[in-house]
Amino acid sequence: MTMEPLLDIQNLKTVFSTAKGKIRAVDGISLSLNAGETVGVVGESGCGKTMLALSVMRLIPANGRTAQGCVLFDGADLLALPEQKMREKRGRDIAMIFQEPMTSLNPVLRVGDQIEEAIRLHLHLPSGRARQMSIEMLSEVGISSPEKRVRDYPHQLSGGMRQRVMIAMAMSCRPRLLLADEPTTALDVTVQAQILNLISRLQAKNNMAVMLITHDLGVVAETTQKVAVMYAGKVVELADADRLFARPAHPYTIGLIESRPAGCARQESAEGYLKTIPGAVPSLYNLPSGCRFAERCAWAQDVCRHREPHLTQIEEGRFAACYFPQNMTH
Fold first, then answer.
1. 30/73 Cα distance (integer angstroms)
2. What's the pLDDT score for residue 232?
């Protein structure tokens, strides 16, 4: 019997109204996660990764709206829930680690109070028990002397410790789904590894599904089972992580992997420089009629410039929005 996914995003479209016109920030994305699974969402800045997560959480800015699609969580459409029910889901069943722990924490509240707030709100515990749980959570995320740290303000903590506090807040109610938006940004390499290991350990302990949003392909290769590559609001390739890195199919995915600093001995040009993807991401105000990557693609042909490709299964377990996928076995 096939198990239903914990999260099933179907043809999700999120649009924003601006003075210049409408922007399709999330444009027809379908993606699913199973309990205990980690899915990486990768792509350049501005491709819609964060807006995808905020759409799932129903936290998009006031000038945006979900125009189409559904977001099924355990079979129920989050987009159709009354706001009160959605507030109950956030933090308890679905949690998010936001970018920039330096600014995501309230600077005038002690970190313990910020963790306790979520515990009291969702678990309905008295303040004494909530304080004890906040101390336990700080200890669980590897912060020493948690009894003292609960009384600290965010400015008294390092960047890595603030990120751990954000994880403690997100994990305090044992959510079933975690949306982690660039959880290692601005952290040094050693702390990055610690944070990723921490998320993996908490995931295994709670059989939690994780959507890991990042531009760091190295992080994705090490920690995810499945990868969705986004470009200009769309998923252009979706595959198992091992298969995607071994044989990337979409030209954009190939470009991302070849422009990685890691493995540069294989990827350097004759002049000794790393490869780059030529051109720039198209303006979301004026998207091309064909493939959004066509003007930057070495394999593009006339059909690519005039007819938009859709995400299609090109082999077992792999999907790509490309008329001429590369590195195929047939």
1. 13
2. 95
